[in-house]
What we know:
- It contains 6 helices and 5 strands.
- The protein has a 3-stranded antiparallel β-sheet.
- The longest helix is centred in the N-terminal third of the chain and has 15 residues.
- The protein is elongated and about 95 Å long.
- It binds iron/sulfur cluster (2 copies).
Amino acid sequence: MERKPMSMWEKMYLPAIAKGMSITFGHMFKKKPTVNYPEKTRPFSPVFRGLHVLNRDEQGRERCTACGLCAVACPAEAITMEGAERLPGEENLYREEKYAAKYEINMLRCIFCGLCEEACPKDAIYLSETFAPSNYTRKGFIYGKEELLIPDPVTQPEAYAKAKGAHK
Ligand code: SF4
Ligand code: SF4
């Protein structure tokens, strides 16, 4: 195939440079499709299902009664727990006579389907508007009560409101 020789104008590359610059400048004034994460975050969808929260009642008592319905409903078998009997004097800590002494969710197994939230008869677990941060170890993705339990609304009202989020 014979190539057409370039004209003098084409050899100067000026039209191509001007065209390229016009595209560049055009993009400079367009609205950015990206956000400066983590300084800015996109608003979550109203149906977003994120990290689990173990809920407390208005007096700050743990709602979970270790009935196991969430674990049974979980299709990923991500939830494990151990129940314990509430002792006299612990009424201010646990709402029901039985509570979860240990409650763990493996976030590497979880598919964030929300079935645990739907299965819970005590409004004790829900999926919040945040997500599990990255971690270097598998163990770091197993969340226990320390990570899951919502702050106490009586002693830490601001932290409680922040953890609760707008959708709950
Ligand atoms: S969101 Fe779904 S997969 Fe994750 S723990 Fe709950 S039931 Fe299991
Ligand atoms: S979170 Fe709800 S469903 Fe799961 S064990 Fe506790 S009370 Fe039962």
